[in-house]
Amino acid sequence: MSVSENVVGAGRTSLAPAQTGAVLRVEGLSKTFPGTRALDDVSIEIARGEIHALMGQNGSGKSTLIKLLAAYHSADPGATAEMDGAAFEIGKTVPHGLRFVHQDLGLILELSAQDNLALRGGFARGFGGRVLWRQQEAETRRILAAFDVDLDIHRPLAAATPVERTVVAIAAALQGWDGDGVLVLDEPTAVLPHDEVQRLFDVVTQVRKRGTSVLYVSHRMDEIFTLADRVTVLRGGRRVGTYDIDGLDSRALATLMVGNDVDPDFRADVVVRTDTSVTLEARDVRGKWLRGVTLEARAGEILGIAGLAGAGTLELPYVLAGQGGPLASGEIRLPGRSEQWHDVRHAGQLGIPLVPSDRQTEGVIAEFTVGENLSLSSLRGLGRPGHLSGGQERSLVEQWSERLDVVAAGPSAPISTLSGGNQQKVVLARCLAISPDVLVLCEPTAGVDIGTRVAIYQIIADLAAAGLTVIVASSDEGDLLALATRILVLRHGVVAEELAAAGLTKNELIRAIEGAEQ
Ligand SMILES: Nc1ncnc2c1ncn2[C@@H]1O[C@H](COP(=O)(O)OP(=O)(O)OP(=O)(O)O)[C@@H](O)[C@H]1O
C-alpha cells in the first residue's frame, strides 16, 4: 500500500498524505547484526503533519529502524532515504529536520529543566562568554510555554513527574527548529500513568499543530487509536504494511503484528479464592507517597494495585519487597512461613522476588549475558553447595527462555543486544525461576508486545492457579483487568476502594482510579 492510497481519518488536524506528500521517505532499509537480521528491506513514508505509529512485537525491529534514522547504527548497503525531497545517507547522516526522544529521554536528572535545555540548545552568552541568565530564563520559559506545562524551571528534574520530564525531552529535541520535520518518539508512555498519558497526548497534538510530523512507537493499542493517523506494522524485521487507523480495530492490528489471531482484551481465567490461607499480610505501610496501607493476600490470589501518579501505587511493590528505601515503614509477614512480623525495611530477607518498573536501571545487569541475568537469583539451588552446576544452569535458562519465548541469539548473547520487551521477559523469568510462593510485580508488561503480554498473563494465571500469591501494581489498566482477582485503588497513599475484578469494565476502573463518582 503506498502513501497516496491512504486517506487520513476525518476529524483529525492533519491533511491527507496524498495532498501533502511525504516529508520522510526510506526505501530498502536492512540491518544485519551478527547472527540476527534485525531489518529486512523495510520501506516507510511519513506524510507531512501526520502522526504515524510504528508497531510490532518485541524484537520486530522498531528500535533498530529508529537507531538507523538517528545514525546510531549504520545500515546495510542498498537503502535510499529522502527528507523533504533531499537525499541523505541513512545510518550515516541525520537531516536537520529529524529529531528524537529516545526511551531513556537523554536528560540529566540532577540538573534543572533550564540547564537541560541549555545543554542541548546552548547558553545565551554575552560579552566574554558570560552566561546571560535572565535571557536564558526567558528563553527557557518561551520554549516550554509552547507545551502548556507549569514547571519550576530551576528545580532538578529528579523532582519532576515522568510526564514533565518527557515534555522537557520533547522541548529539548525541538529546540532551534520550528515547523516541518519529523519528531520520533520511542515509547514515550511506557510507564506513564493514565492521567499523565492524556497530558502527553495534548503535547503531541500541539507538536503536530506546528506542522511537525510524529513517528510514534508504542505497544499500547489504545494510544495508537486515539492519536495516530496511520500505522506501519513490522513483523520479524519485515514491513507487513502501512494502514489507515480508521480502517482497523485493535484485534485486527494485534493480528497483523503477531501473524495469527490475538485477543487484545484477553482476561485470564483466574478463580477468585476466598477459601485458601492468607500468605501475605502488611500493615500500616508508609513511604514517600504511601500514608498507611494495610492489606492481605491469599494463596492463589492476584491482587491488583491501581492509582494515579503520586498515589503510592508504584511505590508499594518496592516496600513489600524490602526495597522501599529509608522513608519506608510498616510491617509485613508471610503467615505460610511464620507468624512473625518484620519491619518492611528488612523485608528483603524474606526473599520476595520483585519485577521492577524500570528494567534498564533496576532490572537487568547490562554487562551480563542473557543466561547470567536469568539464572542470577537461582544460583544457590543449582548444584552442590559451593559448586555451581553449569549443566543445571543451562537447562534452567533454556527452559525459561522457551517458556517465555525470549528472542535472543542465544543464552550467551549480551543482554544489551535484546529488544526491550525481551529484556523484560528475562527479568520476569529470573523471578519465576526460583519458584516463589509470593511474587510482586511493578509494571510487568511495560514495553511488552501484545502477543507476549497475553503469554505472560497466562503464565502468571497458571502459577496463581497452582497457589502462587501475586501482587501486581500497574499504571496500565489492561494489566489489572487481564490478571487481577481483586483490585485495591490507592488515593493519596491510602486504600480508597476495593474492587472485585470479575465483570469490572475499563471505564469503571478508570473512574475509581480518578476518584470520580461511580
Ligand atoms: N546491538 C545489537 N546486536 C545484536 N542484535 C541486536 C542489537 N540490537 C538489536 N538486536 C536484535 O535485533 C532485533 C530487533 O531488535 P529491536 O530492538 O529493533 O526490536 P524492537 O521492535 O524495538 O523490540 P521492543 O519492542 O522489544 O523494543 C532483535 O532480535 C534484537 O535482539
Automatic annotation (TrEMBL):
Residues 24-517 form the ABC transporter domain. It comes from the Bacteria. The keyword Nucleotide-binding applies. InterPro entries: AAA+_ATPase (IPR003593), ABC_carbohydrate_import_ATPase (IPR050107), ABC_transporter-like_ATP-bd (IPR003439), ABC_transporter-like_CS (IPR017871), P-loop_NTPase (IPR027417). SUPFAM superfamilies: P-loop containing nucleoside triphosphate hydrolases. The keyword Metal-binding does not apply. GO terms for molecular function: ATP binding; ATP hydrolysis activity. It holds the Pfam family ABC_tran. Keywords: ATP-binding, Nucleotide-binding, Repeat, Transport. This is Sugar ABC transporter ATP-binding protein. The lineage of its organism: Bacteria, Bacillati, Actinomycetota, Actinomycetes, Propionibacteriales.
